[in-house]
Amino acid sequence: MLPICGKCHAAIKSGRLVSPCYLTCSGTCGKQYHYKCADVPESLHEHLQSVPGLNWKCPECAKKCFCLDSDSLNEFLGAKFDELVGNLKDIFSNLKTELIESAERQIKDTLPECKPPVPSFSAILKNKTKPAIVIQPKNPEQDFNKTKSDIASNIDPLNANIQLEKVLSTKNEGILVGCSSVEQNSRFKLLAQEKLAETYVIREIKGVSPRVKLVGFSQAFEEAEWNDLADHMIKVNSSIFNPKSTCEILKFWPTKKKPKVYQALLQIDKTSYDRLMAAGGLFAGYDYCSAFEGLLEANRCFNCNNFGHSSRVCKNKVTCPKCSCEHELRNCTSEHLKCINCVRLNEKNNSLVDTNHAVWDHCCPVYKSAFDKLKAEILSP
């Protein structure tokens, strides 16, 4: 029986199953069609016969196939991509938080045990600026009440015209006595030495005076001229100093980066310190000098950059405070910061302290530790 065309319903002549004169639908119907009825160009006839896997479907079967809208598909895939990226961001964010917390725990475990926080420098000054007298018994078995009773029976503040401002217990069952003026402290010390020296150790605490570093002097001054320079700055900067202010120059030296620019380390009274730090600087002649807290600045070695000694006694290798290489700062061409002190800390404790900063950075953990240690020494009588 001859095959029937699915469109014109006429018999397909020749009756051959494989014939170039008809096509078989690859859809569900499986019907056969004349090439003309299938509306297939002659240029494709040969390809449909010779190319494996190249099939043709009749219009009815083609309607039953699913079709995709390209715009809708792109929108769908874009939404799924955004959702995937958002999930990945959350995963990486949580992972970053976990890594940071893990590193902080590791640093905390590897660093030496920290002592209780040391009071700020300004808090120290409020409590320790004025001088005082410390009296301690020579007998180690004597208690504080006996010390206090002996002082009260031998020194009457009213008869000695002394106004007490501070009375505190100290170690070794001693007592600290602070009077309202330097003269009264001196008088109390003389009375104590006269009446209590046989059984007590008597010593004077001169009190803490703030230190400030001034940077910006255009000329160097000899040590003999330091007092004249200090008097000049007191007179010129009347908004910071008053006639009763104290100002002493402890050190005068050139800066590292600009050898023709000089800096000085000053020790001044608390009131002047507060005003100077609030102003940010002062005038020395026609030079405006910027002010920085100078408590720790002179304690860093400019040879190895460690704290606690000076370059004059240093026997370590020269290291750059900027990049930690073995050369002087003036020869450094590196654009990257690396703290040699934090590098040493990591090597010693096998820790993960950040090293991407210079040794003079006030956020450096080694700098903070040295700074707190020095303040703790000031706190002790």
TrEMBL record:
<feature type="domain" description="PHD-type">
    <location>
        <begin position="2"/>
        <end position="64"/>
    </location>
</feature>
<keyword id="KW-0863">Zinc-finger</keyword>
<dbReference type="InterPro" id="IPR013083">
    <property type="entry name" value="Znf_RING/FYVE/PHD"/>
</dbReference>
<dbReference type="InterPro" id="IPR001965">
    <property type="entry name" value="Znf_PHD"/>
</dbReference>
<feature type="domain" description="CCHC-type">
    <location>
        <begin position="300"/>
        <end position="316"/>
    </location>
</feature>
<dbReference type="InterPro" id="IPR019787">
    <property type="entry name" value="Znf_PHD-finger"/>
</dbReference>
<keyword id="KW-0479">Metal-binding</keyword>
<dbReference type="InterPro" id="IPR019786">
    <property type="entry name" value="Zinc_finger_PHD-type_CS"/>
</dbReference>
<dbReference type="GO" id="GO:0008270">
    <property type="term" value="F:zinc ion binding"/>
</dbReference>
<dbReference type="GO" id="GO:0003676">
    <property type="term" value="F:nucleic acid binding"/>
</dbReference>
<dbReference type="InterPro" id="IPR001878">
    <property type="entry name" value="Znf_CCHC"/>
</dbReference>
<keyword id="KW-0862">Zinc</keyword>
<protein>
    <recommendedName>
        <fullName>PHD-type domain-containing protein</fullName>
    </recommendedName>
</protein>
